[in-house]
Amino acid sequence: MKKFVLLISVVGMTLLLGANQSAAAVIAQDTAADTVYNDGWQTGDNGGFGFGPWTIRTTTGNNDANNGVFVGNSKNNGDGDNNNDHDINTPLSATGRALGTYAGNGFSAVGYRAFNVPLSMGHTFYLSMDNGFIDSGGPSVGFTLRTGNANSSTADYNVGARFEMLFLGGDTGYKVVDGTGTHYFSPNIGFTDEGLRIEFFLTGPNSYSIVVSNTSGTVLSTRTGTLGGTLNATIDSFAVYNRGAGAGSARDAFFNSFTQLSAVPEPGLVALMLGGAGVIWSWRRTRR
């Protein structure tokens, strides 16, 4: 039976890739497994291909007890349980790693990065986010897609923003901020400390759709909407941020698996691909 599951996963991914290979070329890709992050995560790091180098900003100007960035194991935040023993790590294993941020109350840590080829109509942007616990009363964890690449301080995380997705500490679900305001997903996506896979599709110069899945590849919710910011402006960069989630490793926020595709794949394609990979890895573990 295990061999059958493995075969189905491999065949399924092959068919998915084959059906979309000509229509969805990979423009940019990076994960925390890249060797450039072996000595940590810092300004100037440029793992993978197709993106500009990272610019890291913290409230205090450096990594210290209050705020900073690092490379670590995403399963260690939140309750630290083993419900999903890889969370958003790469490789998909309990010993993999992701790009981490920490920020105590009143502090922030933000990573800025440009697209070498602006995200434009027909493109897809994929990333994983594992926010961990977040203190109530204003702290938030999320990402923004932006026009330009303002990055002189942590306050620039939403400068030129055309889209934002976040979880606000104490809230009842994840939200998006777009051209028509701030919205919950429908159905609502409740808080999780196990991580999310996010696929953002630019369906027009000023329109988008988004698919959010859990780390097992199950689609949790979708949304379509209108972009904010300057009408018809390109999306030139993204920012990932931890705005005061709180002290301690349980409140670390992680990001990983950044991919830009040249065309819109079938909804949930990337999640299905990685979900299949997860099945393969799980099967291999049972054979050891």
CATH fold description: Jelly Rolls
Which second-level CATH architecture applies? Sandwich
Number of domains: 1
From the N-terminal CA to the C-terminal CA, the straight-line distance is 17 Å
Which class of secondary structure composition applies to the elements? mainly beta
Proportion of strand residues: 35-45%
Fraction of residues in helix: 10-25%
State the low-pLDDT regions, or none.
1-22, 271-288
State the total count of DSSP E strands.
Answer: 15
Order of helices and strands: HEEEEEEEEEEEEEEEH
- Largest sheet features: 8 strands, antiparallel
Quickly count the helices.
Answer: 2
SSE topology sketch:
Elements: H1 2-20, E1 26-30, E2 55-58, E3 67-72, E4 98-103, E5 108-119, E6 124-130, E7 140-146, E8 161-168, E9 175-178, E10 181-184, E11 196-204, E12 207-214, E13 219-226, E14 235-243, E15 253-261, H2 269-286
Antiparallel strand pairs: 1-15, 2-5, 3-4, 4-15, 5-14, 6-11, 6-15, 7-8, 7-14, 8-9, 9-10, 11-12, 12-13
Helix pairs in contact: 1-2
How would you describe this structure to a colleague?
- Helix 1 packs antiparallel against helix 2.
- The strands form 2 sheets. Strands 1, 3, 4, 6, 11, 12, 13 and 15 form an 8-stranded antiparallel beta sheet that branches.
- The chain has 288 residues and is mainly beta.
- The longest helix is centred in the first third of the chain and has 19 residues, at 2-20.
- It has a single domain (25-266), classed as Jelly Rolls, CATH 2.60.120.200.
- 13% of the residues lie in helices and 37% in strands.
